């Protein structure tokens, strides 16, 4: 009896191979790789270093925000304000630097703005019980309007004394010719992955998404964690805004419009479950990559750009469909 | 000395008297069945022991010292653990993660402090072994049977040196075989010298595992006697009011 019990308890239900094969992220990654292989063969423009440089750089902004969004989605929430927050943070950075302040001051103001917005969202949701959808929908409108107020709805392209530093920060390639935004994305993804897997904070984020009531009863500081998660989401939008400003070299009040939908799609394609409790940092990256590869390939294959939405929407539905099929099989 | 002693505890919510002048004493290693119809006041009573409510009147003493709690988390600090009716488990986490939820083990120092998966899996495995439950620490709770889920919830109470375990309807919605498993888990707790309060509607379970039965009706304690000297018929009568008091 003792031996069989020992063996039963010591056993793993599934090996790592099985668990990799059953993860949505893995299959999306395969899809990305297959698409890239196909495009390399089918077109002579895809596998050029210039195009790859463009792709990697383009998807970083969505990917960085998708990292923050993934945390929010794991807790069972949603943040619709990220596109507008990106715009507002870019604009705060631009306006402050345009007024002659250094880049440090500009970034501090921008990051500060993001954190205040995130804290506001988080407090309204965690302490006052607002549905995340409602409060962040409100913030979507508020943040973009504030960006217009801050800039008087003009385009800012002069960034004061540190103009060149900012452009190098976002547009340069300091390490081995890899675009700077890609480096930031990888560092942030590793950080997010580490936090989710190895820290108590990450564990609590999953616990809240799995069963918020249980988390509360077992002494998890649910409210504080929720506020932190929305602050991280806004911060990721702010960071993406700062980098994007450096890359574009100009800020208008319509940047990031509609971006929240792309970000959420990226997180969901990458395996985050909107019902909460499931999601990974690598999934956010891979989901964002798939979206960008689809966009890029449609252009290269000469397909009308109007079809973009159909393909991206189709990919989102398809990715989740696989997940549904798997859970149907499990429940049988 | 009694591990827990309630003296003349009352609780009212506005004009509603939920618990009225109840005194109970609980010994270490004793299983007490707490029975009563819906609205008899047993949940309120247990919630006071769990730190959810504060009594309107009366005192609670634990090992002789007065027990005053403001938040549920303080109950745990005093060695009172609760197994909730819905078990309060996170389906998306592993068994070990659920056992250690809120009390994670770490290794490393300072900013390099990370979750100690290995130790948590090992310790959780040891507890499941002690409970004689075939529950694998690395499995997701989502995929577990009702009995295994109970084992996870009960394993939580064994992490620290619990003195009292409150169980709210642990056998309410599980299969017959799993009920036997859960009753065994309760016996294991008792053998460790833990006092168990078992709230249940199921007469056979209480008569199977409890040493003593307490019956409440309309906020009052109407019976408190050894299982050996009572019978299911008598308890039923006490619950419904056919028998006034013993």
Automatic annotation (TrEMBL), chain A:
Keywords: Cell inner membrane, Cell membrane, Membrane, Transmembrane, Transmembrane helix, Transport. The keyword Cell membrane applies. GO terms for cellular component: plasma membrane. InterPro entries: ABC_transp_permease. The chain crosses the membrane at residues 26-47, 59-76, 82-101, 108-130, 173-196, 227-251, 263-291, 298-322. Its main location: membrane. PANTHER family: ABC TRANSPORTER PERMEASE PROTEIN YPHD-RELATED, ABC TRANSPORTER PERMEASE PROTEIN YPHD-RELATED-RELATED. This is Sugar ABC transporter permease. It comes from Sinorhizobium glycinis. The lineage of its organism: Bacteria, Pseudomonadati, Pseudomonadota, Alphaproteobacteria, Hyphomicrobiales.
């Amino acid at each position: 009896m003792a031996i069989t019990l020992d063996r039963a308890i010591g056993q793993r239900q599934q090996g790592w191979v099985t668990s990799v094969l059953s993860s949505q992220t893995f299959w999306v990654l395969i899809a990305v790789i297959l698409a890239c292989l196909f495009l390399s063969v089918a077109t002579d423009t895809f596998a050029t270093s210039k195009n790859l440089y463009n792709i990697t750089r383009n998807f970083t902004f969505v990917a960085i925000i998708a990292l923050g969004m993934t945390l929010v989605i794991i807790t069972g929430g949603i943040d619709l304000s990220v596109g507008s927050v990106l715009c507002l943070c870019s604009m705060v950075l631009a306006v402050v630097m345009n007024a002659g302040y250094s880049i440090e001051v500009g970034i501090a103001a921008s990051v500060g703005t993001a954190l205040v917005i995130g804290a506001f969202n988080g407090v309204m949701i965690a302490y006052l019980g607002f549905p995340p959808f409602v409060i962040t929908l409100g913030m979507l409108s508020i943040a973009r309007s504030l960006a217009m107020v801050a800039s008087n709805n003009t385009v800012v392209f002069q960034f004061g004394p540190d103009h060149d530093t900012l452009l190098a920060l976002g547009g340069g390639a300091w390490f081995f010719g890899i675009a700077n935004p890609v480096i930031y994305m990888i560092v942030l993804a590793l950080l997010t992955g580490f936090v989710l897997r190895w820290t108590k904070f990450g564990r609590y984020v999953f616990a809240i998404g799995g069963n918020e009531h249980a988390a509360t009863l077992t002494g998890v500081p649910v409210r504080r964690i929720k506020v932190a998660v929305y602050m991280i989401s806004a911060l990721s939008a702010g960071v993406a805004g700062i980098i994007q400003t450096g890359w574009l070299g100009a800020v208008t009040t319509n940047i990031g419009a509609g971006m929240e939908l792309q970000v959420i799609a990226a997180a969901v394609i990458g395996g985050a479950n909107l019902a909460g409790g499931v999601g990974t940092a690598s999934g956010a990256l891979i989901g964002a990559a798939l979206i960008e590869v689809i966009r890029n390939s449609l252009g290269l294959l000469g397909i009308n750009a109007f079809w973009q939405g159909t393909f991206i929407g189709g990919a989102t539905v398809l990715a989740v469909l696989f997940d549904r099929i798997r859970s149907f099989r499990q429940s049988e | 000395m009694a591990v827990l002693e309630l003296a003349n505890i009352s609780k009212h919510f506005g004009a509603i008297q939920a618990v009225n002048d109840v005194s109970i004493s609980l010994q270490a290693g004793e299983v007490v069945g707490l029975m009563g119809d819906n609205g008899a006041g047993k949940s309120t009573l247990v919630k006071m022991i769990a730190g959810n409510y504060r009594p309107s009147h009366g005192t609670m003493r634990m090992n002789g010292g007065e027990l005053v709690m403001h938040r549920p988390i303080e109950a745990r600090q005093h060695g009172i653990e609760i197994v909730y009716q819905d078990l309060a488990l996170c389906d998306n986490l592993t068994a070990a993660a659920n056992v250690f939820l809120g009390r994670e083990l770490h290794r490393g120092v300072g900013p390099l402090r990370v979750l100690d998966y290995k130790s948590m899996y090992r310790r959780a495995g040891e507890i499941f072994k002690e409970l004689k439950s075939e529950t694998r620490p690395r499995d997701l709770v989502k995929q577990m049977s009702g009995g295994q889920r109970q084992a996870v919830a009960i394993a939580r109470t064994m992490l620290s040196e619990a003195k009292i375990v409150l169980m709210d309807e642990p056998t309410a919605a599980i299969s017959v075989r799993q009920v036997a498993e859960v009753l065994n888990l309760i016996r294991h707790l008792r053998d460790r010298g833990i006092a168990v309060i078992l709230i249940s509607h199921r007469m056979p379970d209480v008569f199977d595992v409890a040493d003593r039965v307490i019956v409440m009706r309309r906020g009052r304690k109407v019976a408190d006697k050894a299982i050996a000297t009572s019978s299911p018929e008598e308890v039923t009568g006490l619950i419904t009011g056919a028998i006034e008091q013993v």
